[in-house]
Amino acid sequence: MKKTKKYGYGNAVAALMTVVSAAIPLAVNADTIEINGVTWTYSVKDASSKSLILGNGSVAAMPTDTVLNAADIPWTMTIGGETYTVVELAANAFYLCGNLTGTLTVPQAVTKMGNAAFASTKLSGIASLGGVTTIGQYAFNNSGSTLSCNMPDLSRITSFGNGVFQNCNKITGSVVLGQGLTTIPINLFYCCAFTDITIPNSVTSIANDAFRGCTSLVEAPLPDSVTSVGKEVFWGTKFATYAFPRSVTSIGDSVFRGCTVLTAAWIPGPATVYSETQTYTTINGNNMFMDAPKLKLVLFGSNTKPSNKSLNMNKANGCKVFVPDNGFWNELAPGGSNTDVVYYHGFDERGKKMTFTPTTAAELINVLDSVAMFKDKFDLDVSIAVTNTIELAEGQVTAAMLSGLPVKFDSLLFSVKNQAQLNNILGAFPSSAMITIDPTGLTEKLTVPEGRRVFVQLSEGDDIRQKLNGFIVIVK
Fold first, then answer.
1. Helix, strand or coil for residue 396?
2. Is there a contact between 131 and 110 (Cβ–Cβ < 8 Å)?
3. Hey, how many other C-beta atoms are within 10 angstroms of the C-beta on 331?
4. What distance in Å separates the CA atoms of residue 313 and residue 311, rounded to the nearest whole number?
5. Residue 355: helix, strand or coil by DSSP?
6. How far is the C-alpha of 434 from the C-alpha of 416, rounded, in Å?
7. 347 DSSP β-pair partners
8. Among 446, 449, 456, 445, which residue's Cα sits nearest to residue 476?
9. Which domains does the chain have, with CATH numbers?
C-alpha cells in the first residue's frame, strides 16, 4: 500500500447547488492511502483509539470517477501495521461519485455522516446506517434516480441536516424516527415515497417542506410535543383526513396545498382556559387548501386566529368551513364553489372534546348536521349547550334528525310561547337533556308530559307568577 500526506484546508465543495458543508471542520493533516488500486483520503480522528474520518471535507474520499460497489468501501484500514476503524464520514465523502453503486451498509462503528456524504451517487439501496446518530444536510440528495429501497432504520438518528433524503423518490416503506430527535428539518423527506411515519414525542418542530411532495404518504400523526409546523409541510401528500394536536401554536402557509384526496381537516388550537391568559394557534392561511378538490369539511378551533385568511379553496365544491366567532376570522372568503362558512360559538376542551354554544337556530342546525362527520373524521366528542335563548320553528329540529347522532346535550335554553313549541322541543330532544324555557311572551298554559323535566328561566328578583304572566307550568 502506498501512502502520501497532504496539508492545508482546501476549498469547500458544493453539497447541493451552491450549498457547502460548514458543519464538519476540515482536517488539517489529510492522508491518502491506496487500497486495491483506489486512492482514499482520510484523516486520523484519534490515534489512541485508532479511529479515522473517511475523506477530508474538501474533496471526495476517492476520485469521483472511481467505479466502486458500496460493499467495497474500506471501513477499516491498515496504517503503519495498525488497524484503524472509520468512525465518521467527512462532508462530501462520496459527493458526485457517479459510479458508486450497490447497497450501502454502514458499520456500527460509524456515528457521524457529513453533509452531502452520498449526494449524487448511483447507490441502489441503503441496508443500514449502522451506529450513525448525526447526518449532515443533503447526505443522500439527488440519488433518487437509482436509490430504490425501503427507508433504513432511522431510530438512532438524533440530528438531521436539511434535505437529507431530498428527491429520493423511490425510497418506500414505513419510517420510524427515534426518541431524542427534536426537529424535522427543511426538506428532510422532500419527494420521498414512503407511506407512513412515526414521529416521537421529543420532536417540537416540523420545518418548511419537510414532507412536501411525498405523494404516497397517508399517515403522519404529530405528537402532542409539536408546537410549530412550517410552510408547505404536507403539500401533495395523500391524507384522507388530518387533525393537528392541540399543542401546535403556529402553522405556515400552503400546509395542505395539492392534497388531492383530503376530505377533512381539523386545526383545534389550545384548550380554552379561564384562570390564565388564553393562548392561540396562529395560522398562515395563505393557499392553505389550494388544489384540494375533495375537501368537504374544515374545523378551526375556538382558539385559533389567522395571520392570513386567503385559504384559496380554488377546487373545492360544497365544503363547509367552521370558524369561531372570536373576532379574528371576520369576513372570511375561502374561495371554491358552494362553500359554506359557519361562524360558531363554543369552546375547546382538552383532548378530542369540544362544546358548541350556538346562539341561533341556524347555527344549532349547522352543528347538528356536522356532528356525525366530526366524529367520523376526527373522532371528536361533541357537546352542545344553548346558553342564549334560541327560538325553534316547528320541524326545524326533530327526533329523526337527532337519532343516532354522537352528541351530548348539556343545558338547552329555548324560547317557548305556546304548547306546540314546547311539544316540538320535548319531542326532538332526549329526556337526558336539561331543557330550560324562557317564557317571555308565553300566551297559554303549558303542560309537561309525565317523566319529563323542564326548567323555567328567571332573572334575579323575578316573581314566578309575574314571570309566567299568570300562566303556570303543569306536569301531567
1. coil
2. yes
3. 6
4. 6
5. strand
6. 15
7. 355
8. 449
9. 1-226 (3.80.10.10), 385-475 (no CATH)
- C-alpha dist (Å) from residue 178 to 114, 183, 201: 19, 11, 9
Written as tens digits, the pLDDT of the chain (476 aa) is: 444 333 232 332 333 433 433 333 333 356 999 999 999 999 999 999 999 999 998 889 999 999 999 999 999 999 999 999 999 999 999 999 999 999 999 999 999 999 999 999 999 999 999 999 999 999 999 887 889 999 999 999 999 999 999 999 999 999 999 999 999 999 999 999 999 999 999 999 999 999 999 999 999 999 999 999 999 999 999 999 999 999 999 999 999 999 999 999 999 999 988 767 889 999 999 999 999 999 999 999 999 999 999 999 999 999 999 999 999 999 999 999 999 999 999 999 889 999 999 999 999 999 999 999 999 999 999 999 999 999 999 899 999 999 999 999 999 999 998 899 999 999 999 999 999 988 888 778 888 888 888 888 876 655 554 444 444 555 44
CA distance 324 to 467: 34
User: What amino acid is encoded at 179 in this protein?
Assistant: Q
Tallying the residues shown for the chain, one arrives at: 476
Residue 169 CA neighbour count, 13 Å, CB half: 8
449 Rama sector, left if φ>0, alpha if ψ -120 to 50, beta otherwise: beta
Sign of CA dihedral 315, 320, 322, 327: positive
Residue type, position 141, single letter: N
Query: Given the DSSP bridges, would you call strands 38-46 and 51-54 parallel, antiparallel or unpaired?
Result: antiparallel
Task: Locate 8 and state its grid cell.
Answer: 492545508
Residue 384 parent element (H or E)? strand 381-384
For residue 256, is it left (φ>0), alpha (ψ between -120 and 50) or beta? Answer: alpha
**Residue 399 phi, psi (nearest 5):** -60, -35
* Residues 120/145, Cβ–Cβ less than 8 Å: no
